[in-house]
Amino acid sequence: EDLAKLKTAKVIFVIGGPGSGKGTQCEKMIAKYGFTHISVGDLLRAEVLSGTDRGAQLTEIMEKGVLVPTSVVFELLKEAMSAKIDTANGFIIDGYPREVCQGEEFEKEITECQFALYFDVTDETMTERLLKRADTSGRSDDNPEIIKKRLETYHKLSEPVLAYYEEKGKAKKIPANGNADDIFAEVEKVLKEAGY
Ligand code: B4P
């Protein structure tokens, strides 16, 4: 019954490497357009803090800079969407899909996304941003060794996700090495074209 409702959801995916500015741009989109934001990274960190068995296993995985099993991510995502479906005015799902199979599963079980926003940033810039955030984030994965690993994981598993949506004609690629306001101006153009 829940799944039937979810199938009616409007969904925009936000993808890009670690430190590509997903969270930052999502905040701006929520403020301007009133979308409902789901950050998969935040869901996973909340699960860790909740002290469940599922959470305990996640800490270890995230501190290795690798991806959490797709089945776990999908369950958390469905729970989070279900909790908000009655009030949601379109979802932006941030940090998903991070592997092609995640996108395929979502499409099969829930719905096709409207499009995937992709933030295109060099490894150097991503690394710089994450190291800067490390001063204040308290995130155990914001350290040089794990950042390197996260970038590797990203190139191997998440970059193919861009190609997957390009093939479907659904990728919206945004150059995102610059400052957050200039990047947001590009995001606004994409959303305007999409009718928002
Ligand atoms: P996430 O929480 O998604 O972490 P992230 O990739 O680092 O992105 P985040 O949104 O935090 O950073 P942002 O680029 O906005 O994932 C963490 C871990 O969770 C993964 O490694 C993985 O293990 C697991 N996980 C998450 N999703 C998963 C999935 N679908 N499947 C399996 N596992 C999953 O910003 C970074 C910094 O840059 C910030 O400090 C920001 O202020 C700064 N910044 C942003 N834009 C800037 C700009 N234009 N100029 C200067 N600085 C900027």
TrEMBL record:
Coiled-coil ranges (or none): none
Protein name as annotated: Titin-like isoform X1
Gene: LOC100367780
